[in-house]
Amino acid sequence: MRSFYNIYQFVAPLLFFPLAYWLWWERFDHRHDVTMLVMFVPVVSYYVFVLVG
To answer: Would 34 disulfide with which of 18, 27, 28, 51, CB 3.0-4.6 Å?
Structure first.
C-alpha cells in the first residue's frame, strides 16, 4: 500500500491538474488569465499561510 501512495502523489496531480484547468477554462469562457488566477491563488496562499504559521 505504501508504494501506491508513493506513486499516487506524483501521478494524481499530473492527471487532475490539466483536467481542473480545462474545466475552469471552459467555465470562464476561455480566458487564461482568470483561469490561472483561480488555479494558482489557493496554492500560493496555502504555502504563505504555512510559512507564516
So the answer is: 28
Band the pLDDT of 1: cuts 50, 70, 90: confident
8: Cα separation from own chain's centroid: 15
In the structure, what pLDDT confidence band is assigned to residue 51 with cuts at 50, 70 and 90?
confident
Residue 35: how many other CB atoms lie within 10 Å: 20
Q: Which three cell numbers stand for residue 44?
A: 500560493
Measured at the alpha carbon of residue 52, what is the angle toward residues 49 and 53, in degrees to the nearest 5? 80
